Amino acid sequence: MCSRVKSIIHRWAIAISIVSIATSTLQARVAPPLPQDAAAAKQEAKDSAAGKRPITPEQRARAYAKLLEGQRYYVGARTGRLTIETLRQAQRAFEEALQLDPTLAEAHTALGELAFFFLDDVETAEREAQAALKIDKDSYGAARLLARVLVLKSGLRENKIDRPIAERAIDALREVVRLNPSDAEGWALLGEIYLALGRQTEAIDAFTHWAAAPPSLDTRFYQIVTGGRELSPDAAAARLGEVLLRAGRTSEAIAAIRRAIALEPSNRDYLALLSRALEAGGGGDAVLIAELQRIVESDPTNIAALDLLARSLAEAMRYDEAIKAYEKILQARGVGQNPVTNEEDKQLVSWILERIASLQRQAGQTNGVMATIERMRRLLGRNDPTADFHYALLLRDQGKRAEALQVLRTARLRNPDQPALIRLEATILGEMGRADEGAALLRARLKGKPEDDFIELLNIANVYLQAGRAKEAIEASRKALDLAPAAQAARNAARQNGRGDQDDDRTDLQTQALLMLSSAQEKAGDFKGSEESLRRILAKDPNNATALNNLGYFLVERGERLEEALEMIKRAVQAEPTNASFLDSLGWAYFKLGRLTEAEKYLSEAARRNPASATIQEHLGDVYHKLGKTDLARAAWRKALTLSIEAAETARIRAKLDGSGGKN
User: Fold this and answer.
1) Could you tell me the pTM of the whole model?
2) What is the pLDDT of residues 583-638, one digit of tens each?
3) Taking the alpha carbons of 479, 480, 484, 487 in that order, is the dihedral positive or negative?
4) Which of 67, 70, 451, 587 suits a disulfide with 94, CB 3.0-4.6 Å?
5) What are the boundaries of the signal sequence (predicted)?
6) Are residues 460 and 512 in the same domain?
7) Of 75, 73, 77, residue with least CA distance to 92
8) Is residue 560 in some structural domain?
9) Helix residue spans in 79-158 (DSSP H)
10) Are residues 531 and 625 in the same domain?
């Protein structure tokens, strides 16, 4: 049996409070040879099963007694009182029950569960479940066991679906929900399998039934095979909404997501999903902001809703209102002018002030940023690195990279191992043409811990990519890609145990590595390799908006398959209508197609949503130039020049400003 499947079952056994026992020891000791009288009884049972000898009432009574005895041992094991001896006794009791009465489906099911939960033996579990169902096709326990075995073997958890096994899993799950139409796990797993097979309509039907089912007490198996998803009623409504949104059934999606939020108003993922749904519905910023304001009015302490409200206001360029939304959180926690001493409050204050400083930087409010930095020092203490980090960001925005570097190095004397300071220093070194120095800082943080090393390798790749060092960026990206499975397993385990960071990027780590690799390959001129990397993402997730956008944009940049590129970018924008990068790609595609009115519309919107992008400003200037709006073109190019950090990009923009035209 695959070691990966073994590890999944082992973690599940631990999750239900079972002590760890070596499988080989159990298998050696649990099933000793049957004594001679038991062997004789087994032969009698075979004869009875073959119709040679009827089962006597006495045999049946003794069989039930053995079944109950085994269940007592088994219940003890499932509640954490497991020893090798009790497990052996449970297994022997069930075997003896079957020797006395081979028609006891419950005994086959119990033996299958022992094999599944405690012996990491899915083949025996499957065989026993099938034996039970052959005796009693309406055995709910056996049907559920068989379904779980097949779901585990289908590759659902690894996103590597084995279609024949997945089809068998569907049949088994349909039996589970036939026998118990209120089985939340059955409907949820059915939906996940359908979704993995691309059968979206059937997935929606299954998730609709799940959302209507009562809560399940046994949630761990679903969590494990789905990488940490919850089986709760709110999760059901949210998952339904997510899939409805993907299917373009926006109004139904919004209704489902609202039900999820009504059950869990502070869930960040649900609020973000609502944001996407409202945007897809064409309501724009105003509709989303109004919805979030209603949520906040009903619960002014809902930090997740306040945060999303502030972000939405910022995207609408209503920066002062966004800052006020964050200030309300501080007021609700009683934060004033005095230093914060409670560690939990410190974390919250640091997070909020960082958000405020970022908004002020976006709005170009330099004085406001400086005031917030001083506020950080006053509330968090002079030794806290948050203020220095944001001061360095401000200096970098102003083009004062050498000064920013000095601020960071001084701060690192007090906080030598602070990751944010190190990563920003590495980034700035790369921007100053000192990429090897920046990469060396990050390499020093590689400690052999998969998830942490994965992050640093992506940062190394990015430093080299921004410096135009595509070969080194590819090398670091490939190393990150190799680490992705182990890093993903560590991240999933942390989330399942409640240790995950709420602000973590929820994107699959292999996808993150492939996105970085494809960008590096594109920069290196390996267009075929870049497209293959993105196609790997789309093979697993055909609706991945970033992969669709990037592939479309790369094709547009090369002037290849422009209509195909346009359709991919449109799909990305449909998924994330306020993403400035996607809007830029769409505008640039229209520009390349000569559709200047559409190009101006989307590039203007991209620039409104992200005024700090040199690429967007350059593209907008190019459109204005083509439209004969010379003054607007030069203004956009000048702004792009102040934002540019790449030498080639800077030279190209200067050429346009000097009147030489440049390459579009």
Assistant:
1) 0.69
2) 999 999 999 999 999 999 999 999 988 888 999 999 999 999 999 999 999 999 99
3) positive
4) 70
5) 1-28
6) yes
7) 73
8) yes
9) 84-100, 105-118, 122-135, 140-153
10) no
CA 426/CA 467 separation, integer angstroms: 11
Q: Are 470 and 464 in contact (CB under 8 A)?
A: yes
Asked if 470 and 565 sit in the same domain, the reply is no
Say how many C-beta atoms besides its own lie within 10 A of residue 11's C-beta. 15
Q: What is the CA radius of gyration of the chain?
A: 30
Give Cβ neighbours of residue 411 (< 8 Å, ≥ 6 apart).
385, 388, 389, 392, 418, 421
* CA neighbor of 197 nearest in space, from 171, 225, 161: 161
661 and 553 assigned to the same domain? yes
Instruction: Give every CB contact of residue 48 below 8 A, 6+ residues apart in sequence.
Output: 54, 55, 59, 101, 102
Is-contact 578 606, C-beta < 8 A? Answer: no
CATH code, domain with 484: 1.25.40.10
Neighbour tally for 547: CB within 10 Å? 25
**What is the token pair recorded at 70?**
């085994």
Domain identity same for 553 and 659: yes
Residue whose C-alpha is closest to residue 172's, from 193, 203, 195? 193
Instruction: Answer yes or no: is 662 within a domain.
Output: yes
Segment 328-333 mean pLDDT = 85
**In this structure, are 529 and 463 located in the same domain?**
yes
User: Distance between CA atoms of 534 and 513, rounded to whole angstroms?
Assistant: 10
- Residue 399 identity: G
Share of the chain above pLDDT 90, in %: 59
Per cent of the chain over pLDDT 70 is 88
Final residue of a structural domain among 488, 523, 542? 542
Nearest in space to 305 (alpha carbons), one of 275, 269, 266, 270: 266
Using one digit for the tens of pLDDT, what is the confidence trace for 147-194?
999 999 999 988 789 999 999 999 999 999 999 999 999 999 999 999
Q: Identify the CA nearest to 622 among candidates 641, 601, 639, 600.
A: 600
Tally of structural domains, the chain: 2
554 with 573, same domain: the answer is: yes
* pLDDT 10s digits, 62-118: 888 888 888 887 776 555 566 777 778 888 888 888 888 898 899 898 898 888 888
Q: Is residue 587 part of a domain?
A: yes
Q: Is residue 631 part of a domain?
A: yes
Q: Are residues 638 and 556 in the same domain?
A: yes
